[in-house]
Amino acid sequence: MVSELVLRKLKKMGVTLEYAKGGAFPQFSAAHAGEKLLLLADRNTVGYAQKFAPRGSELCFFDEEEPVPDERMCARAVDAARGCDYILAVGSGTLNDTAKYAALQTGKKSGVLATAPSMDGYASPVAAILKNGFKVSEEAHVPADILVDPAILSAAPQEMIAAGAGDILGKYTCLTDWRLSQFHNGEAVNEEAFSEMLNAVEKFAASVEGIVRRDKAGVENLTDALIISGLAMAEAGNSRPASGAEHHISHYLEMWFVAQKMRVPLHGIKVGLGTLVSAYLYEALERDGVTFRGDAQTFRAAKSIPSVGTLRATLERLGAPVRFSALGISRELFREAIAGAHTVRPRYTVLSLLEELRLTQYYLPELEKAFY
Ligand SMILES: [Zn+2]
User: Fold this and answer.
1) How remote is the CA of residue 11 from the centroid of ligand 1, in Å?
2) Is residue 345 helix, strand or coil?
3) DSSP letter at 342?
4) Helix (H, G, I), strand (E, B) or coil at 110
5) Ligand 1 centroid vs 215 CA: distance in angstroms?
6) CA of 239 to the centre of ligand 1 (A)
7) What is the pLDDT of residues 206-230, one digit of tens each?
């Protein structure tokens, strides 16, 4: 369970976070009594939606193998939402994004009953949807309610838990990228957001064995870290506390999968792999005595990242791949992604530093050996 302070901060952001009591959400039910709720669900979550559905609510069921938040799915949700008072996504990524989008289009409020600790968009105002086959980020509203039932979350598919873990391990490296840019370029760091995120990541890291056992408290710590990521971004006013080079690598690969019209591996799975690359680079730069402005301070900050060996073991323990070849990509694409990821976003990371020092090509063979 998140701290009282985090609960209060979320509340200030407009988000009410409620943990289930005996499988029910009394606070949410009381606040929405008499309203007509629209529940969005897919094949994996429809059972939870039916169990939860208050009297008079309506169900918008996406009866397909793997729904994607494209024009068709969004239009269906928007249509259904017109006749309702409130939209509740029963799911994680896609359903949450669709609910946020439908809420924005209809001026209704939305919330989410979390079913998998797979991504950190729960407390984020951004709705990532597909337009003409391209992923676009729509500025929406943050969900008004996040409902967390550890019993549901700890029963989530292993791949989704592995993805959530990968996304959270990536915070170690993106926070270090933030420090790098502070010491190297003088970029401001929001210390409150920084330490809030780091604390949540460390709490998660301490519960990995519990998560492997599907222990509710462990899975709850992972979920909390995913929610706090949204809060940290809101506090920082940008995605610095949640996204660095490991995310840029993931975005680069994602664009390729979308362009090939192939099934895109879960976000956090790709981020977990990117995290290994970033962590490796911080270790290698120090090992090789590479000098740059702010080097000593940066290497000190990088000590908060667990060793590459530990990160790799953690990902493996949770069933996540630790080699890019497991995603079915070519060696060429791997090289292209590492060398090109710094162009994905105008944000200074360890990959930007590598470019600046003209060391990208120098480290590529090592990286390929370790992680392709
Ligand atoms: Zn992420």
Assistant:
1) 22
2) coil
3) G
4) strand
5) 23
6) 9
7) 999 999 999 999 999 999 999 999 9
Domain that holds residue 284: 158-371
Distance 161 CA to ligand 1 centre (A): 13
Q: 269 CA distance to ligand 1 centroid (A)?
A: 10
Asked if 225 and 168 count as a contact pair (C-beta separation under 8 A), the reply is: yes
CA–CA separation, 312 vs 50, rounded Å? 39
Distance 270 CA to ligand 1 centre (A): 9
What is the chain's length? 372
Q: Are 310 and 280 in contact (CB under 8 A)?
A: no
- Give the mean model confidence (pLDDT) for residues 72-82: 95
Same domain membership, residue 118 and residue 24: yes
Q: What distance in angstroms lies between residue 171's CA and the mean position of ligand 1's atoms?
A: 8
pLDDT digits (tens, 9 = 90+) for 166-210: 999 999 999 999 999 999 999 999 999 999 999 999 999 999 999
Domain boundary among 105, 133, 153: 153
Name, in order, each residue with C-beta under 8 angstroms of 349's C-beta and a sequence gap of 6 or more: 174, 177, 180, 181, 244, 245, 248, 278, 342
Q: State the distance from the centre of ligand 1 to the C-alpha of 121, rounded, in angstroms.
A: 8
Q: Are 173 and 84 members of one domain? A: no
